[in-house]
Amino acid sequence: xxxxxxxxxxxxxxxxxxxxxxxxxxxxxxxxxxxxxxxxxxxxxxxxxxxxxxxxxxxxxxxxxxxxxxxxxxxxxxxxxxxxxxxxxxxxxxxxxxxxxxxxxxxxxxxxxxxxxxxxxxxxxxxxxxxxxxxxxxxxxxxxxxxxxxxxxxxxxxxxxxxxxxxxxxxxxxxxxxxxxxxxxxxxxxxxxxxxxxxxxxxxxxxxxxxxxxxxxxxxxxxxxxxxxxxxxxxxxxxxxxxxxxxxxxxxxxxxxxxxxxxxxxxxxxxxxxxxxxxxxxxxxxxxxxxxxxxxxxxxxxxxxxxxxxxxxxxxx
Length: 317
Fold this sequence. Notes:
Elements: H1 15-26, H2 33-41, H3 45-59, H4 63-70, H5 73-83, H6 86-98, H7 105-114, H8 117-131, H9 135-142, H10 145-155, H11 168-178, H12 187-196, H13 199-213, H14 217-224, H15 227-241, H16 243-255, H17 262-272, H18 277-287, H19 292-299, H20 302-312
Helix pairs in contact: 1-2, 1-3, 2-20, 4-5, 5-17, 5-20, 6-7, 6-8, 7-15, 9-10, 10-12, 10-15, 11-12, 11-13, 13-15, 14-15, 15-16, 16-17, 16-18, 16-19, 19-20
C-alpha cells in the first residue's frame, strides 16, 4: 500500500522557510487562506510537525493556535486535522466520540474496523498518554451488549495472521449455522469469527459462505442483526474485502442526498490522504456513477471545497 496516498513528502523541504510563509500569510489584516492550504497540503504529516516546531522557534507562537484564530468553520477543522499526527488524530476522534452526551458510534466503528492491528495498538498507547485513560475502559463504559463485545475484540488487535486452510469451511459453516440456518441468531459466532480472523482468511470464508448459503455475507448480516452490532459487523466485512472500497462508500454516503456529513468527509479525507486516497478514488469511480472529485465539487464550497479538492488531487472521469 506504500505510496497510495495523494499527499507526499515535499522534496527540498525547508521547515524554516515554510514557517515564515505561514507567518506572513496570517500576520496583519486578513488571512491568505490559499497560501496556507497550498503549503500544508503539499507537505507530509511528518513535515508539518517539523514546520510546527520551526514556527515556535522562529516566532515564539503556536502554529495550531494561530491557525485556529485565523481560520473558521469547516475549513479550519480540516486544516487543524491535517496538523495532528495521525495516531493522535485517531485518539482525539475516539475521545470526542465517547465523551459528551451520546456516543458517536459511527466514529468508533469506522476507526476500529478499518485500522491495522499495529495502528490500533499505537492508538491505545497514545490515548493513554494523552488522556490518562484506558481506551477499552472508556469504550466499554459507553456501549453495551454484543456491540460492546465486538469493539472489545477489535481493541485486542490480535487478528490471526494469514489463511488457516483447515478452518475456512468450518468457519463458513459456523456462520451459516449461527444465522441463516436457525431461527434467531447466534451473535457469538459472528463476533468471534469476524473479529479474530485475518482479512485474507475472511475473504476465503465469505466465498465459501456464498456457496453454502447462496447469500453474500453482508446480506445475511443485514437480515440477521440490527442496530450498532449490524453496523460494526458490516464495516468489518467490508474492510476485510477492501478498505479503500469501504471508505469510498462512507464518502459517498457522507455527500449523497440533502445535506453533507462534514465530520465524516473531513475525517476520511484527512486520515487517508497519505495512505490510500488514490485507491479510494478509483474504487469510488468503480462503485458510483461519478468521481470523488465531482461529488466534492457539487457538495462543498469556498476554501473548504478547495482544500478537499487538493487532498483528492485529481479527477477520475
